[in-house]
TrEMBL record:
Name this polypeptide is given: fructose-bisphosphatase
Domain Fructose-1-6-bisphosphatase class I N-terminal stretches: 12-211
Organism: Ceratopteris richardii (Triangle waterfern)
Phylogenetic classification of the source organism: Eukaryota, Viridiplantae, Streptophyta, Embryophyta, Tracheophyta
EC number(s) per entry: 3.1.3.11
Alphabetically ordered keywords of this record: Carbohydrate metabolism, Chloroplast, Disulfide bond, Hydrolase, Magnesium, Metal-binding, Plastid, Transit peptide
GO CC aspect terms: chloroplast; cytosol
GO MF terms held by the record: fructose 1,6-bisphosphate 1-phosphatase activity; metal ion binding
Chief location: plastid
Enzyme class: hydrolase
Fructose-1-6-bisphosphatase class 1 C-terminal domain ranges (all copies): 216-345
Pathway: Carbohydrate biosynthesis; Calvin cycle
Domain of life, per lineage: Eukaryota
Cofactor(s) required, per the database record: Mg(2+)
């Protein structure tokens, strides 16, 4: 029997990244970008866990481009994520849910990766200490994307144009992940070779490999939707939701689980199976979640783990973004569960 590994034998995220680089799965620049994201998430984890102590709960008193009240921690987490990425020297453009437009990174040394992120998703949960998370996607820079900076177009306008060309989730999304701030702090990421989970060991501040090669069960009995919007949904979706509640021959209907935090609801779906959905409704024709830094990274992970991410009719990863903050409906999780809702919506 393999002796249980001592806590110091577990593979760290740093060691895992170096292995991926040495085996040619990722290059040195992407390794540095992912390390800088790991640092940002550790810093955000400590901020989140001490929010009530360091007076970081509550609202900032401003609204973001989404028109949402910014929490103090939204702003701080965005600054942490941006500064870690800038100081990596390997990112060319960063786009954040908390920034109106994408930002060209002057300090770019090499690599020029394009990183999109939601620094603290589900931040409305912070004051109640319910799980939150950071979500990120890393796109391959297209050659010369920022090189030919013609001087009559502003750098940020060039960055915006670049984002629209570069951020093709189906072909250019190289890596994606999230860090969940919950009873454990867990970094889940993929560089295109499966999905792996790393738990932060607070004893020495390193992420250690705890979930190797995560696979979403092909079906599951948990659905995760905000049913408060039921009356605003399309009739086909209502029928789908009604049928989930039918106990059927087994006498056991599906279970409802919804915490109002995509990262927490999705992480449970990744491990237990089932489906998370944020459908369109009469208030929001394209649902609420943003394509670039929520739906695409999560769909990349879902597919890498053998699951699916759909807007109800097509792969999320096949959607070509038109706007940085573009919203799309999302149905994501076990393959059979996503295909089931697609059948109802057809
Ligand atoms: P609602 C958080 O604001 C978020 O973007 C996701 O993390 C979460 O799943 C969803 O919105 C919650 O939205 O409308 O159900 O409160």
């Amino acid at each position: 029997t393999s002796a249980k590994k001592s806590q110091y034998e577990l593979q760290t995220l740093t060691g895992w990244l170096l292995k991926q680089e040495q085996s040619g799965v990722i290059d040195a620049e992407l390794t540095i970008v992912l390390s800088s994201i790991s640092l940002a998430c550790k810093q955000i984890a400590s901020l989140v866990q001490r929010a009530g102590i360091s007076n970081l709960t509550g609202v900032q008193g401003a609204t973001n481009v989404q028109g949402e009240d910014q929490k103090k921690l939204d702003v701080v987490s965005n600054e942490v994520f941006s500064s870690c990425l800038r100081s990596s020297g390997r990112t060319g453009i960063i786009a954040s849910e908390e920034e109106d437009i994408p930002v060209a990174v002057e300090e770019s040394y090499s690599g020029n990766y394009v990183v999109v992120f939601d620094p603290l998703d589900g931040s409305s949960n912070i004051d109640a200490a319910v799980s939150t998370g950071s979500i990120f996607g890393i796109y391959r820079p297209t050659e010369g994307c920022l090189a030919n900076l013609d001087d009559d177009t502003s750098l940020d306008q060039q960055a915006q144009n670049c984002i629209m060309n570069v951020c093709q989730p189906g072909s250019n999304l190289l890596a994606a992940g999230y860090c969940m701030y919950s009873s454990s702090v867990i970094m889940v990421l993929s560089v295109g070779k499966g999905v792996h989970g790393f738990t932060l060991d607070p004893l020495y501040g390193e992420f250690v490999l705890t979930h190797s090669d995560i696979k979403i069960p092909s079906k599951g009995k948990i659905y995760s939707f905000n049913e408060g919007n039921y009356q605003l949904w399309d009739d086909k979706l209502k029928k789908y939701m009604d049928d989930l509640k039918d106990p059927g021959p087994s006498g056991k209907p599906y279970s409802a689980r919804y915490i109002g935090s995509l990262v927490g609801d999705f992480h449970r779906t990744m491990l237990y199976g089932g489906i998370y959905g944020y459908p369109p409704d009469k208030k929001s024709k394209n649902g609420k979640l943003r394509l670039l830094y929520e739906c695409a990274p999560m769909s990349f992970l879902a597919e890498q783990a053998g699951g699916k991410g759909s807007d109800g009719y097509r792969r999320v990863l096949d959607i070509h973004p038109e706007q940085v903050h573009q919203r799309v409906p999302l149905y994501i999780g076990s393959t059979e569960e996503v295909e089931k809702v697609e059948k109802y919506l057809a």
